[in-house]
Amino acid sequence: MRGAWTSARVRAAEEPVLAATPEGALMRRAAFGVAVQAAELLAEHTGAVSGRRVALLVGVGNNGGDALWAGVFLRRRGVAVTAVLLDAERTHPAGLGALRRAGGRTATGTVAAAALEHADVVLDGIVGLAARGPLRAKAAELVEHVSAPILAVDMPSGVDPDTGVTSGPHIRAERTVTFGARKPVHLLNPAVCGSVHLVDLGLELDSPDVYALDAVDVGLHWPVPGLADDKYTQGVAGIAAGSSTYPGAAVLAAGAAVLATAGMVRYVGPAAEAVRAQWPEVVATGSVADAGRVQSWVAGPGIGTGSEGRDTLERVLADGVPVCVDADGINLLARSPTLFDARDPATPLVLTPHDREFARLVGDPGSDRVGAARRAAVDLRSVVLLKGNTTIVAAPDGRVLANVARGSWLATAGSGDVLSGLVGALLASGMDPWLAAGCSAWLHSLAGELAARGAPTSASGILAAIPEALRGIRVQQAHREY
Ligand SMILES: NC(=O)C1=CN([C@@H]2O[C@H](COP(=O)(O)OP(=O)(O)OC[C@H]3O[C@@H](n4cnc5c(N)ncnc54)[C@H](O)[C@@H]3O)[C@@H](O)[C@H]2O)[C@@H](O)CC1
Ligand SMILES: [K+]
């Protein structure tokens, strides 16, 4: 799992390393990493390094210092380097002196605009860890002149390092070179960072503030039947979804649970016939009381907010097994918070709201979605999966992971029903509920991408792509094992 740490924690971790290394050594190491990536970008975009033009956007802090030192290293490879200084008086003195000695130029006014317009690659050293708010007017005006690919030093300027939120002019980088550790912006807003490269500074950091899963993580955790397993030992997922008005939600949620693991799926509700017709392997009954034993429940998709749905949700919450509550189930909880009392506090609850459902439950998530999801998880003693282009999964113990969608194909009717079925299947296998929700979100977005292949898809398409998505991560895992 990749991790990211807030700017305050990274700064604190840098202190002992700075104290133990010669003055400027850390900055030069960071800058060397920037120069290597800048040379790579030049070669990719122009076919050469020597003789090409790089412009540096240099702010008043150490971020600007990094950019200046990167310019020094690029000069040694024959690159023409021009530094555009946002405030000449307050520029990093050692970096500026070194760049001048190495034959780099500085530019202001119309010369600066021209240098930015004619550059092959631009380095963004405007602001780093100390960033607050969007780009200020002078920096924003200079950035207007850039059309070349931008390499961000540490992080794209004008973006909040800890939330990834943009609230005005900001840099959109093709590549980012960060130092010591990833910051939350790199996991939460990859659209502004481009590809992220990490330069190791030997920082000591544990328990990240935000995690992100990759294919190998999901492949390692996804349950696979062992030699001694039968249909019961892998966990039976119960699906309480759908209604006579919305049988589709039941078919999609049950189908996702069928395809996610090799165990067994039970269904309860008024859409039993439709579910059986599509998924003959599902054991379908009318009510929770007749369902037989399950190791998890999914409750909510398409059940409506009437008394029948409410009764179902209450029974499911009291069943003493992990529960994933989605859609109408969340609306019911928002309307009648006393329903939470039906829950056995020792059994995990996973809530999977989109923004409007989240707002009904605990209030508007606002722009700091990580903070909002984390608070909701603690307050509701539940894993909260806040859906969005970047989906946030927060656990009541404070763990947070972010899953960035691959395109927006998942924003289609019924897509959430598929996600809840995946969560239900993983909960039934006994997986940690935070990880179950995270792995489900990850696989759901991969299935969405595979189903779409560049053209709009549907929830049925996402469902049908689950096996292909799972085969893909099994292959990745095999590569890791052997
Ligand atoms: N501390 C260290 O050990 C290391 C720090 N490094 C670099 O140092 C950076 C942090 O440096 P600093 O603490 O000097 O601060 P920054 O360089 O991040 O910021 C400098 C100043 O920019 C201004 N600023 C804030 N928001 C702005 C905005 N939206 N638009 C324009 N200007 C804005 C503020 O006056 C701020 O003090 C890191 O991001 C990294 O690039 C690296 O050299 C590696 C080593
Ligand atoms: K920057």
From TrEMBL:
Read off the SUPFAM superfamilies from this record: Ribokinase-like, YjeF N-terminal domain-like
- Record-linked CDD domains: YXKO-related
Query: Catalysed reaction(s)?
Result: (6R)-NADPHX = (6S)-NADPHX; (6R)-NADHX = (6S)-NADHX; (6S)-NADPHX + ADP = AMP + phosphate + NADPH + H(+); (6S)-NADHX + ADP = AMP + phosphate + NADH + H(+)
Q: Does the keyword Isomerase apply?
A: yes
Q: Where does K(+) bind?
A: 63, 124, 157
**InterPro entries named among the record's database cross-references:** Carbohydrate_kinase_pred_CS, CARKD, Nnr, Ribokinase-like, YjeF_N_dom, YjeF_N_dom_sf
EC number(s) per UniProt?
4.2.1.136, 5.1.99.6
Task: Give all residue intervals belonging to the YjeF C-terminal domain.
Answer: 214-473
Keywords per UniProt: ATP-binding, Isomerase, Kinase, Lyase, Metal-binding, Multifunctional enzyme, NAD, NADP, Nucleotide-binding, Potassium, Transferase
Which residue range or ranges hold the YjeF N-terminal domain? Answer: 10-209
Protein's GO biological process: metabolite repair; nicotinamide nucleotide metabolic process
As cofactor, the record names:
Mg(2+); K(+)
Which top-level group of life is the source organism from?
Answer: Bacteria
**Signal sequence region:** none
Q: Which residues bind AMP?
A: 387-391, 416
What does the cofactor section's free text say about binding?
A: Binds 1 potassium ion per subunit.
Pfam families xrefs:
Carb_kinase, YjeF_N
* Family named by the database record: Belongs to the NnrE/AIBP family. In the C-terminal section; belongs to the NnrD/CARKD family.
Q: Matching HAMAP family, A to Z?
A: NADHX_dehydratase, NADHX_epimerase
Summarizing the function annotation, the protein's role is:
Catalyzes the epimerization of the S- and R-forms of NAD(P)HX, a damaged form of NAD(P)H that is a result of enzymatic or heat-dependent hydration. This is a prerequisite for the S-specific NAD(P)H-hydrate dehydratase to allow the repair of both epimers of NAD(P)HX. Bifunctional enzyme that catalyzes the epimerization of the S- and R-forms of NAD(P)HX and the dehydration of the S-form of NAD(P)HX at the expense of ADP, which is converted to AMP. This allows the repair of both epimers of NAD(P)HX, a damaged form of NAD(P)H that is a result of enzymatic or heat-dependent hydration.
Q: How does it assemble?
A: Homotetramer.
- What protein name does the entry list? Bifunctional NAD(P)H-hydrate repair enzyme
